[in-house]
# Entry
Amino acid sequence: MRLRNNPNAPQFLDAHPEIVVQNPENYRGRWNELFGNDHPLHIEVGTGKGQFVTGMALANPEVNYIGIELFDSVMMKACEKALDAGSPSNLRLLRVNGADLEKYFAKNDVDRLYLNFSDPWPKSRHAKRRLTHEGFLKLYEAVLVDNGEIHFKTDNRGLFEYSLISMTDYGMKLKLVSLDLHADNPADNIMTEYEEKFSAKGQPIYRVEAQFIT
Ligand code: SAM
# Structure
């Protein structure tokens, strides 16, 4: 997501510790203490402006959610959205790089991982940066519970095809594949900002639910 750098963003994020976790490495292996319950934890890597993760938190109060975003200016929008939604107690944001997940999460900390409209990195020399590259799948497996799942949505056919191959090469089980999510009309689908933009242009949305097999 490209947004002009907002010089006030770091200060804004620091001022909202009720949403933005300030020292996330302190909660590695004990996120239940931060949330004050033992509910399952679902994380989204590449949250963007936060519509999905906030909507999911409001719709599913029995699940804890963490949105992870690299850029402060984008994270600020997600934080504003969470504040507008009344700061749901089951929602937190981390301004960290998804490539560093293991610094913040231990094995079994995460029950499900969402990727939505991840950057496609179309050039093959950039394949390692795709969030469904083998290197990232290995990271996700290291923080998920056994048989944990990745739920991935995208408008990008090339990235989707690549991801299906990457996941199956890794030995994951594809539990659900949709080549036109909105035509399938799932009642519980929460749209992301990118999903609204691309589906309004008539583009099909692809979705896969894939499970690690132990
Ligand atoms: N998920 C949102 C949506 O569907 O509207 C945003 C999609 S946007 C194309 C991808 C987002 O992922 C950007 O905000 C980008 O900064 C973030 N991102 C990319 N790589 C990341 C990484 N390694 N760790 C955390 N966030 C990342």
The chain has one domain: 31-211.
